[in-house]
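Bit of a strange request maybe. I'm writing a small parser for structure token strings and I need a real example to test against, not something I typed by hand. Could someone generate the tokens for this chain?
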Amino acid sequence: MSGPVIVDGAVLIGEDGRIAEVGTAEKVSQPESAGTVELPDTILMPGLVNLHTHLELTALGGRIEEDDFFQWIQHVRNAKAELALEAFRESAGQGVRDGWRWGITTVADTGDSGAVVDALTDLGGRGVVYQEVFGPHPADAAEAFAALEKTVEELIVRAGDSVRIGVSPHAPYTVSQPLYRLVVEFAKSQSLPVAVHIAESHAEVDLVTQGKGQFAEAWSRRGIPEIATARSPVAYLHELGVLREGLLAVHAVQTDLADAKLLGDHGCSVALCPQSNVRHGHGAPPIGRFREAGLAMGLGTDSVASVGSLDLFREMRHVRRLGGLSAAEVIELATLAGARALGLEGQIGSLQVGKWADMCVLRMAPGGWSSPETMAEGILDTAAGDVVQTYVAGRCVYDAC
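Reply from user aminoacidic:
Good idea to test on real output. This should exercise your parser:
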């Protein structure tokens, strides 16, 4: 991600968990106090950045068969209501460990149980955790915001050094205009990162642009006032003052070039989740438009309740077909570009001196690969069991050996 492929390479990890040297094994220092790990016939690469997860839902993998997005959401809500806090914690912990098995060293997670903060902190993982808030009725905005503010304060105290707390007003069909404004002002005053689900489904577009469709009907049944319509979901957030530097826009499938430019002009980033989009019939993210607008992008798996696993390599292969990207460009989306989307490119995303030693080790195909180009192609073919080891801040958190 930051230089040419190094054959017979080595990384020296300092006692602080950061990279001290990178180069050939012959040239990198080997202090007497340092242990040595030799991994022949493998590739050492930056750890993957999963730009959108719901790790608290890991236990729901394979349990919800409904594909229709509106109905699927109802099933998820019902299933979550049946889970106790301890179940969320176990689910989140399993999600962190499953991510390590896929070479994922950083997650950008959204949820409302707080379990992922505890799991990452207890296990020594790295991530940005966005506390979700819901409340489509304007009359409930103050109460919902007060609860969010209290929870965020508690999570900041509980979070480990490698875990950053953010906020996530969920989506236009679950958040009222007053609640959006309260959350965004709070985030600004506290310098908190913000993530939003936006422009994901056709049903969301129908609600925002016409005040019609499944979400509008559900609002009517609950006595929620009609939404003030806008040209598009992204334009709707713009009119509310939600778009801002560093905002993570999740999905953004139903967007045109004007939307992409709005996001780009405000310094937003986009989390692409192509497998989830396919599962629910949303279509494909307009990668070409995003690139034209100069948007920072990365890859996310979404929840295993949606896509079945945290296989970010599968997302890489899919997005390559959608965007006509080279293998190297796709790998960058899952590493350095994902770090950039979170504002963490100075800390993670590439193997460079001074950055955290967040790395994954992949088993090389028999006979190796003859060039950097074929090596990149081989990385995209990574399957279950091909990840040999995963490191976070120089600590081996997964070892298949």
